[in-house]
Amino acid sequence: MVPENKDHPILRSVADIFTTSDIYGIAALDQEKATVLLRGGVTETLDPASQLIAGEKNDPMMPFAWLKDYASPTGKTSGKCFATTGGASVDFRSEGLRRLIVNAALFLCDLEVPAKANVEFVDPFEPSFYGFPDDGFNFYRKRNLRVENFQLGSSANTYPDPKVLPR
Fold first, then answer.
1. DSSP secondary structure string, 89-102?
2. How much of the chain is helix, strand and coil, in % rounded to 5?
3. What is the pLDDT of residues 62-91, one digit of tens each?
4. DSSP of 57-81
5. Whether pTM exceeds 0.85
6. Which of 107, 110, 111 is nearest to 7 (CA)?
7. Which SS3 state, helix, strand or coil, does residue 43 take?
8. Of 26, 70, 76, 106, which sits 20 to 30 A from 152 (CA to CA)?
9. Where are the beta strands (DSSP E) in 14-156?
């Protein structure tokens, strides 16, 4: 957490975020105008127990989550937006990331952010790893999913990843 923003409502009960989608370089963010809430580092491997790598990839640590005012086409400040570089389907295995997103949504809607938002899954959640399987989109065509497969109580998230993708 960025020390000066550690008490921000979006960060309530947020801890231990680990995303396998990596940390991205954020070159165009004006950090003087943004409120950086979290910074992330690149680790040796995609294992949550892995150590941060030494060197320029983590110096400086990249913004991972931030707030920023945005302006309408007239130039008038219209509101705030929240952004994070986390968010691939597999990243949402992290309870901390789920809580960060829920807290941000509540905050941006001017709703009370609870001390610890409930971010448990309502259905089984087995996300597909990002990437492209060897058989291209045939992997997805074979699943023959329909909108009704995604209603509460009938999770479509129980199909195994193709063998060629990391887990």
1. GGGGG-HHHHHHHH
2. 25, 15, 60
3. 899 999 988 878 877 778 899 999 988 889
4. GGSSPEEEEEEEEEE-TTS-EEEEE
5. no
6. 107
7. strand
8. 106
9. 34-40, 62-71, 77-84
